[in-house]
Amino acid sequence: MMLDKQELHQVRDYVVRTLPDLLREDPEIATTIEGILAQHFPRRDEFARLLDELQLLREQMEQRLTLLREDMDRRFEQMEQRFEQMDRRFEQMEQRFILLSETMEQRFGQTDRTLLAVRRDAARLQHSHEMILERMDHQESWLNFVTGNLRSEKGKTLEDMFATALRYGLKNPDITPDKIRLRQELVDAEGRVFKTGFETEVDLIAEDSRLIVFEVKATAKSSDVDFFALKVDLAAAQNPDKSVEGVFISLAASPAVQQRCAHYGLALLG
Fold first, then answer.
1. What residues does each domain of the chain span?
2. Nearest to 203 by CA among 182, 225, 177
3. What proportions of the chain, in percent to the nearest 5, are helix, strand and coil?
4. C-alpha angle 122/126/130, rounded to 5°?
5. Listed residue (202, 269, 266, 262) closest to 234, CA to CA
6. Is the pTM of this model over 0.90?
């Protein structure tokens, strides 16, 4: 029989009045109540242990972030040194170009054959200059892509910027924006890899009969690789008519991350 609200208040008041006497008369009741409370609320020592574990986890994360920042600083210093070297090369090339132009003027009265050879040299020099600039742009795009520092540029979509970076990182000049598929829904309707109905997202490069599943992590853990490998397996199971590859992209990946990628047969770029 269900008690009404007034009866419940009466029962509660009765328990509050009699409970102290019951605890004094029968200590086992206190033990029983303590056990019930322990099932729903952590004890003081357990709560202190949880705080200690959280503090240790925070310290470990701060150490990893410090190491990552130091590694990033070293890499940027190396990039700056390379840019300085390129600047010096450009200055040398400009001097050679000026000298070549002066030589062309001096030899203007020579035969057409000699003049044509000089013009070809100048064209090759100019082409080399443009190629170096293009390569530097691609390196910068890749670095921004890996560190998550992509900035919107007028007239460019996210697919455009991803394609530019991936062409350089994967050394595949055929990657174009129309082949990039970002945030594609992936549902395990049959429970092949995850639980039935599990939903997630993947980023893809679609090339005819080939799919490249890729994921970018500025800071990666072994568990990130494990989860990514499962997504690659599900994509492969749902596309039996295609060749499916997995590419995990992370700057300064730890040895543990490298080992997990090798274990699953995933390509690792950084």
1. 72-146, 158-269
2. 182
3. 65, 15, 20
4. 170
5. 202
6. no
Dist CA 204 CA 162 (whole Å): 11
Angle (nearest 5°) at CA 268 between 266 and 270? 165
Written as six digits, the tokens of 200 are 């997630």
Q: Give me the amino acid identity at 81.
A: Q
DSSP lists the bridge partners of residue 207 as 210
Residue 13, pLDDT score: 81
Which tokens go with 97?
């170009």
Residue 160 to residue 163: CA distance in whole angstroms: 5
CA–CA distance from 107 to each of 94, 95, 122, 188 (Å)? 20, 18, 14, 73
Q: Dihedral sign, CA of 238, 239, 245, 246?
A: negative
User: Other CB atoms closer than 10 Å to residue 164's CB: what's the count?
Assistant: 22
Cα separation, 75 vs 71, in Å, equals 6
User: Hey, which residues does 198 pair with through a beta bridge?
Assistant: 188
Q: Which residue has the tokens 């890499």?
A: 75
Compute how many other C-beta atoms are within 10 angstroms of the C-beta atom of residue 216: 20
Q: What's the CATH architecture for 158-269?
A: 3-Layer(aba) Sandwich (3.40)
- Give the sign of the dihedral formed by CA 98, CA 102, CA 108, CA 114: negative
Per-residue pLDDT of the chain (270 residues; tens, 9 = 90+): 566 878 777 877 877 788 777 777 777 776 777 667 666 666 667 767 877 888 888 888 788 878 877 877 787 688 778 768 877 887 888 788 788 777 767 766 565 566 566 566 656 645 454 444 345 555 676 767 677 666 656 667 889 889 989 999 999 999 999 999 999 999 999 999 999 999 999 999 999 899 999 999 989 999 999 999 999 999 999 999 999 999 999 988 999 999 999 999 999 998
